[in-house]
Structures are given as C-alpha cells and as structure tokens.
Amino acid sequence: MMFTPWRSALTYAAWVTVVSWLIGTVVLAGYSLAFGDRLGPTGPEPLTWCRDQAVFLVVCTTVLTLGRRLLSPLPRWRTVIVDGILYMLVLGIANAAPYGAVNPGQLLDAAALYSFFGLFTLQLPAAWCVSAVRSGKLDAVLKKRYTLDGNERATPNM
Fold first, then answer.
1. Backbone dihedral angles phi then psi of residue 78, each to the nearest 5 degrees
2. pLDDT of 58-116, one tens digit each?
3. Distance between CA atoms of residues 40 and 50, nearest Å
4. For the chain, what are the domain ranges?
5. What CA–CA distance (Å, rounded) separates 140 from 143?
6. Phi-psi category of 43—alpha, beta or left, where left has phi over 0 and alpha has psi -120 to 50?
7. Which of 24, 102, 115, 126 pairs as cysteine with 121 (C-beta 3.0–4.6 A)?
8. What whole-number distance in Å separates Cα of residue 61 and Cα of residue 40?
C-alpha cells in the first residue's frame, strides 16, 4: 500500500493554504480600495479578524495534511477535486463558525455564503490552481511488508 509522508503532506497543505489565503486577502483589499472602503476593520474587530484568520490557516493546513496523509495518493485531477472540497468546507465553516451559536441552519447558510465569497475573492480558484501545481510534488512511498520467512518485501503499486 502507498502513502504520502508527513513532511510532503504538510508542505503541500501549507503551500495551498497560505498562497490561496494571501491571494484572497490581497484581492479583498483591492476590492476595498476600489469601492472607497477602509482597508480593514476598525476598533476591536482587527484582533478578532486576525484570530479568525489564524484559526482558519491552522485548521485548513491540518485538514489538508491529514487528507493527503490518510488518503492514498490520487491522480492530480482527483487530488484537486478532493482537496478543493476539503478547502471549501473549511473556508465556509471557519468563517461562519462565529455565527453558529444562533442556529445550525444559519451556520450552513453562512458557510455557503463564505464559500461563494471565496470564489469572488479568487481564494478558491487559487487553492485549486496551487493544488494542481503542488500535487505533482507529493511523494508516494511504499509500505514495507514482511513475509513469513522474515524477509522484507515492498508492496507493489496498485
């Protein structure tokens, strides 16, 4: 059986998460400047925004790392689809979680809204593109199996 090592899965997840988040943040700042808004929230909100974004970065990197580590290596197009779905779920839920105490239905609505918002800020398309590029650099390793006579033998590719 094949698997992806922790280091390879972590670097892949970090690249996908950080680059797409940066692109989304820059595009959002551009939208703010284009429409004459202030560049960021004022008052006590910047600390809340920073905390929420840090939680998103950590959770998304963790989820993508576990996804790449626990799932067997996939073709590139399937990796983009699976990881894109994981990224979209984490993006929607992490941004909607502060509103989730009201009602689970409203949490799902807010998660869908933030997922669409991720499309308009180019965060989701950037995640898909970075995933397509970086998935070619994922390592796949064979697990070793031992025969009855004690000799080790690598498992063939499936």
1. -75, -35
2. 999 999 999 988 887 778 888 899 999 999 989 888 887 776 656 777 777 888 888 88
3. 11
4. 6-140
5. 10
6. left
7. 24
8. 24
